[in-house]
Write a structure and sequence with these properties.
single chain; mainly alpha; disordered N terminus
Length: 236
């Protein structure tokens, strides 16, 4: 009887402790800075998951290319902002965050879009083109080529300046659907986009990379004009 009494008292104490814990708020942080960090990481996780769903919706034609492109650009911009904010906490996003939460396996399309490419699929592959706007897109492409080559010739090496100019060039090139399949401008621009996307926005490209990029752009700019001339001759 005495043993049973002790057992009942211990059981009652354990139950009471569990009830007390259940009524307490579980705190994930000790101060405002810790709270901000956890909330920012939650935003980052949410963006990656959202991009994964967005990519699948685009592939399945659940949304229009225009809707996809608008939302994707917003999410990529937010992702880059958070990535910059969390550099001190997460020096290697792929190793220190993606791997920790198994996102490489769960969100491969989002990883490709956010980490590897940095632009929407409509800019990477095309797909949002209005054929009536081809002349406008061609003129825009010429301007983007010139702007980017001017940047490099003027010794502007900052990634935060070159990347948007490359992205604009890629966007306009991919809207021109009648370029020949052997035109190498698109893959060349995509190559440089991927390289700069992997760099910090405040970084600068090397002089060697600047010379190589300028040579690629001059070559593809010349080839682009030849494509336009060939298309004009066919129309005549």
């Amino acid at each position: 009887a005495e043993y049973m009494g002790r057992t009942n008292r211990v059981t009652t104490q354990m139950a009471g402790g569990a009830e007390l814990l259940a009524n307490q708020e579980l705190r994930l942080w000790d101060d405002a800075n810790e709270r901000e960090k956890h909330e920012t990481l939650a935003d980052l996780f949410s963006i990656i998951k959202t991009v994964e769903h967005l990519e699948k919706a685009y592939i399945r034609d659940s949304i229009t290319p225009k809707e996809y492109e608008t939302e994707c650009k917003k999410l990529i911009s937010k992702f880059k902002t958070i990535k910059k904010m969390m550099e001190a906490e997460i020096p290697d996003l792929s190793r220190d965050f993606m791997a920790k939460y198994n996102l490489h396996k769960e969100c491969p399309a989002a990883i490709h879009r956010l980490i590897n490419i940095g632009v929407p699929a409509t800019a990477e592959h095309g797909g949002g083109t209005d054929n009536q706007q081809l002349a406008v897109y061609a003129a825009q492409t010429v301007q983007h080529f010139i702007t980017l080559m001017d940047y490099l010739e003027l010794k502007r090496r900052e990634v935060h300046e070159l990347f948007p100019a490359l992205r604009d060039l890629s966007d306009s090139l991919n809207k021109i659907v009648n370029l020949p399949s052997d035109y190498q401008g698109k893959p060349q621009v995509q190559k440089w986009l991927s390289k700069l996307n992997s760099m910090d926005g405040s970084a600068q490209i090397s002089e060697e990379d600047a010379r190589a990029m300028l040579l690629d752009l001059e070559k593809e700019y010349s080839a682009f004009h030849k494509c336009l001339q060939a298309n004009a001759a066919q129309d005549d």
